Amino acid sequence: MKKSLLLFLVIGPLITFAQLTPKSINTGKEGVIGFYEFKPGGYNPDSTYLYPLIIFLHGIGERGNGTTELHMALNSSFPKYLVKGATMKFTIRGRQHAFLVLMPQMSKDYVNWQNFYVDAMIEYARKNLKIDTNRIFLTGWSLGGGGAWKYATASVENARKVAGIIPVSPAPDYTDLCNLARGKVAVWVHHARDDASIPLHYSEDAITGINACSPDIPPLITYYPSGGHPYVAEWAYDTLNKIEYPNLYQWMIGTSRANSLATNQDPFANAGNDTLVILPSTSATLKGDASFDPNDVIIQYKWTVISGPSSPELKILKPDFPVTGVSGLEPGNYTFRLTVKDEFGVSKSDNINIEVMLPLGGMNATPVVNAGQDVIIREANYHLKGSGRDYDGTIKSFHWRQVSGPVTITVEENGKMANLWGITQKGTYGIELSACDNHNPCGIGRDTVFITRNVPMPVYFNYWSKENPAIRNPDVHRYGLLVVFILFFSVPALIFNSFTIRNFKDKRLHSH
After folding, report:
1. Which of 256, 259, 348, 374 gives the lowest tally of CB atoms within 10 Å of its CB?
2. Are 53 and 131 a contacting pair, CB within 8 Å?
3. Residue 4 near residue 68 (C-beta atoms within 8 A)
4. pLDDT of residue 390 exceeding 60
């Protein structure tokens, strides 16, 4: 009880700041349900604005009695963002939207989520909160993701109570997936490819099953290449577009049961204005953020190269992000295409032209230089291979030099190549490649490559060296002395005990 009180005192101020309030309701047959209620700042039940609602279902480790253990429901994934002060306010097409959130705690009497928890939250919200009944969303992580599947696939009636579900690293607790299509529920799954706790194929099987039912709203799945089971819980619920665009909250704002395939309006793609690039610059920024959808949400922005004198590199900043970078441009004309897709799978495209030119007025175009890709190494030596090109002349010479780093290293130059020696300390080293062209005075182009030495931690196992400070470790020294002390006294004691026992046995043998 003291431990629970202490935890409440610790998170109490945070709850006030984050506008989280512990609540409980008596369902009668199913008993009392404890839950947290989140209201955004400025919540006004008398306004004409209807608030979208999120119902979050936690994982197996957050189960509790709903009273003294209710704080455990805040221990992972989405609730952490609320405790840290997430406002749950997002601006879409110039209008601000804010979410209400309900987070029930499941009893330890159950091993998976029961549908009555979700029904109780929906009923409570309808009676006590100013919600948009066309924007009720059910989400959960791990066991809670399975609970989202379970509720919405149990019946068409259940499916029609929610606009969308977002199962995150979900347990495969689904029944009839066609109920999602019949109930016109939007689905967005998040899962890591290397999830060993709940393998990815369960989510892929679910997506396949939904698609087999010809849904009006095609289901979405976001793959994380790594992260296993737990980290996806943090990434999927990010509120600041650090991971993806749109994030799941922006997606929810554009998703409504009031939308339908029959009344859907096409999205508008806007690739921006045509652009002029003057050498030696060989890069540009492609901006599609003026694209919009009049009635739901754009779920995908895709840039492609249609034509040009070379094959430039598109630098994708974030999955489905409207802005991307392009590099490796050469003199000539390029055409890039932006394709956007809305929630109902309707796509529209728009093109942008980029012209790359030599400097005007006969000015010198300095060389374009590439020092190579940034890398992380474990060795003390590394070989660099750069490149350079001058579009209005020739390159006379290359020069390598160190411009940053924790210690000075040896840079052995050989034209476009260089050998690095003595990268002994952990850290990041900046190595610049410059090229001088044949103009007088020469034009110089520069590029810097960053080499990060990630020195593996020494393995301290059973020895300590006074002579070699590179493998010294004070803790190991201290514990090593303790081990030596124990062995010094225990080994003779074992020998003595062994001798005593054997001697005792011999005496007993002779006495008989």
Report:
1. 374
2. yes
3. yes
4. yes
Average model confidence (pLDDT) across the chain: 86
**Side chain identity at residue 426, one-letter code:** K
Q: What's residue 456's pLDDT?
A: 53
CA atoms of 172 and 185, how far apart (whole Å) = 18
For the segment 275-299, the average pLDDT, to the nearest whole number, is 92
Is pLDDT above 90 for 337? yes
Q: Are 442 and 390 in contact (CB under 8 A)?
A: no
Question: How far apart are alpha carbons 20 and 448 in whole angstroms?
Answer: 48
Secondary structure percentages of the chain, helix, strand, coil, to 5: 25, 35, 40
List, in order, residues 6 or more apart from 196 with CB less than 8 Å away.
228, 229
Per residue, the 3-state secondary structure of 15-58, as one string, reads: HHHHCEEEEEEECCCCCEEEEEEECCCCCCCCCCCCEEEEEEEC
User: Which residue, 148, 153, 123, is CA-closest to 137?
Assistant: 148
Higher pLDDT, 53 or 297: 53
Q: At what angle do helices 143-154 and 115-128 cross, to 10 degrees?
A: 80
As a whole number, mean pLDDT of residues 129-151 equals 97
